[in-house]
């Protein structure tokens, strides 16, 4: 894929899970904050030797964007010897931050950059709670406490 290719778009959690399960080169990047990883949990991939990359897009408590996000992620990918044309799936709480991260990485990565649209916890339900209508946890996909 060309570095000038457009953002690959949004996918639902089951599409992302299927792609991650079937393609050993595909990478899942969780861009939530360290506090979210610690208190809410992190996704788990079904192959024991594969880790989810944890790279913050924003920093708690001021929630400012990391200006060096792309550089930090590229370093992580290089350290793990990820092929430069591998697909990357970006995940956050509900799909907003991860979409920004995927768009940011698109011109810097040869492979497609996808956003996992409903994220780890999903959208708010009618009672203003998450994990009840969509998202990684609601779909019953594997996760653990950090």
Automatic annotation (TrEMBL):
Pfam families: Rhodanese
InterPro entries on file: Rhodanese-like_dom (IPR001763), Rhodanese-like_dom_sf (IPR036873)
Domain of life assignment: Bacteria
Keyword Calcium part of the UniProt annotation: no
Keywords: Transferase
Domain Rhodanese, first and last residues per copy: 22-102
SUPFAM superfamilies xref list: Rhodanese/Cell cycle control phosphatase
GO molecular function: transferase activity
Protein's recorded name: Rhodanese-related sulfurtransferase
Organism: Cohaesibacter marisflavi
């Amino acid at each position: 894929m060309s570095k000038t290719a457009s953002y690959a778009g949004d996918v639902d959690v089951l599409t992302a899970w299927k792609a991650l399960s079937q393609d050993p080169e595909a990478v899942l990047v969780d861009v939530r904050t360290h506090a979210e990883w610690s208190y809410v949990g992190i996704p788990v991939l079904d192959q024991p030797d594969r880790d989810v990359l944890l790279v913050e897009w924003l920093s708690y408590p001021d929630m400012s964007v990391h200006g060096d996000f792309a550089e930090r992620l590229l370093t992580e990918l290089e350290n793990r010897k990820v092929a430069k044309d591998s697909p990357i799936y970006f995940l956050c709480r509900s799909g907003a931050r991860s979409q920004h991260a995927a768009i940011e990485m698109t011109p810097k990565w040869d492979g497609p950059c996808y956003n996992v649209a409903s994220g780890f916890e999903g959208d708010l339900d009618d009672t203003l709670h998450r994990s009840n209508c969509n998202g990684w946890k609601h779909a019953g996909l594997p996760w653990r406490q950090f």
